[in-house]
Amino acid sequence: MSSINEPLGGGIESPVKSPKPFAAYEWMLSGRYLRARRKEGFISVIAGFSFLGILLGVATLIIVMSVMNGFRAQLLDKILGLNGHIIINSSTGRFTDYQSVIAKSRKVARVKQVIPLVEGQAMVSTPARSIAALVRGITEHDAKNLHALRQDPNAVAPSDRNQKIIQGTLDGFDKNKASLAIGSRMSKNLNIYVGDYVTLISPRGASTPFGTTPRIKRYQVTAIFEIGMSEYDSSIIFMPFVEAQKFFNRRKRVDAVEIVLDDADKVGEVIPELMKLIGTSHNFSDWRERNKGFFTALEVERSMMFIILSLIVLVAALNIISGLIMLVKDKSRDIAVLRTMGASRGSIMRIFFVTGASIGIIGTIAGFVIGVLFVSNIEAIRQFVGWLIGVDMFSSELYYLTEMPAKMDWHEVTQVVVMALLLSMAATIYPAWRAARMDPVEAFRYE
């Protein structure tokens, strides 16, 4: 039996020789087979669907994975922008040695900021309505250095992403004891703005012979912030630290000390060092423990979406197989003629390999371009589609974020592109091998 590179007829020398992996005539025939004639229209339709399937599969994978990455990054940024990476609480319930804990914490490497906090639940009341809120006592210095409350002096407008204080200012926050900073959604819900007054009611007020009486005090709104997460913007209030100690009867103690690191992923390295310095009389927890269920669910959903959407590319690759097998059947006479002219089996295999692989390669490139363009303009596209159909497609009340997030991971995009290319090329191997193994004598017999 002749080898795959030998021409049919033993002593007949092939007129087609080329030192290159793919000869010019192989490219020419591959291109001609991709441009099917009228009688081969059905094969052309299958090739078109294969192309569209790979294009949509690659584009959808890039878009969906980028949106999932964007959700995770945005939520992580907003959650950690308001809460510390490490939280220290007293195991006795009375955190009076917080000054010592702060001094020791600042000696640890990677510690960027140490924030003492007073926290308590209160009812916020106006003449129109009342809502529950979480009040956090914080110093002016710590508030201004908190990522979620940053004031950017270079911001050109309150809507600038770097500007979290959209009305008012935190300047003089400590001096004005009766001042509050509230979220933008709370401001809208209560219909109050900078300069307006609200009444805070705490159920745990002063102790009297007749029991504990509620504490009621009037405060002025001096700043309105917008973190971008509706749950926070509608329920959190910041109060001067010393005033919060008085209002919640904390006197000379705090509820927690929060530590912000220069890298949120290094909490596992920093906590042991803190425990050595501070001791085991305090409880230590980090952002991973507090949000474990939330971020684990996001990761599982992200992985499952990748697997499910990869099936689109797989189905498109299977369409390439079916289309090429039909093309090989239809071109059996052409294959027989080429073989008798001296074309080797390897040459025939390369012709049909290029024909099928071209569909996958062009479809992958087109899907990559469309996916990248879509992700780059996803917020504008969302707004346009929402305006077109008259529906809010990304309600912040449901999704906690004020805009559609998308973050492209180029390593992940490369994986998607490589996977699509490998699947589409692998799909061409069997039909191309079938074409190369075709016996020209048998092909002529049935023509």
Structural summary, described in words:
By secondary structure, the chain is α+β, with helices and mostly antiparallel strands. The chain folds into two domains: 24-75 and 295-445, no CATH class; 92-280, no CATH class. Helix content is 51%, strand content 17%. It contains 16 helices and twelve strands. The strands form two sheets. The protein has a six-stranded mixed barrel. Strand 7 and strand 8 form a beta hairpin. The longest helix is centred in the N-terminal third of the chain and has 42 residues, at 41-82. It is elongated. It starts with 23 loop residues before the first helix and ends with a helix.
Count of DSSP E strands? 12
Structural class: alpha+beta
Strand composition percent: 15-25%
The percent range for helix content is 40-55%
Number of helices: 16
Total discrete domains = 2
Low-pLDDT regions = 1-19, 156-160
End-to-end Cα distance = 24 Å
**Neighbour order of strands in the largest sheet:** 2-3-10-5-9-6
Whole-angstrom Rg: 34 Å
Outline type: elongated
Helix and strand pattern: HHEHEEHEEHEEEEHEHEHEHHHHHHHH
Largest sheet: 6 strands, mixed, barrel
Instruction: Summarize model confidence as the mean pLDDT.
Output: 80
Summary of the model, kept short:
It is built from 16 helices and 12 strands.
